[in-house]
Amino acid sequence: MFEDTIIVLADEVAKACYLVTHTKAACAPQLQLLKEWCLNDDLKNFCHKLQVHPDVFTSLVKRIQDHPIFSNNSNNPQLPVSVQLAIFLNGVGHYGNGATTEDVAEWAGVSVGMIYNCYRRVMITLLQLHDNIIHFNLMDLKDQEERN
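Above: the chain sequence. Below: its structure as tokens.
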């Protein structure tokens, strides 16, 4: 009898483990840390998250911010271009578990759909402005100026 009671209780515990939903602990978005890292000269963390130096990031924002894809006539404004670029760079700069849209959404404090929209807008802009933004020829004077 005692053995049967233990088996029944063990079954109840096993069922409870699978039937009770697991709620994820709430956490604050970390996107705002980028500005803090820049102000405190913490380039290591900034570059780790976005894979670019803050000066490169600022230059990219200046070059893409006037693209028409970042404007709309809606009552719901888009995120600032700098935020959209940061989300894009964070996502494409990571791989594996850290690259899922859910993880990037949690990091930025926005929805998964917003992550998709940011990726799409930034990628379209970078592809259209590719020849004016991305340079690899170190013999070109324009590229040498940007590197310095």
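The chain has one domain: 27-133.
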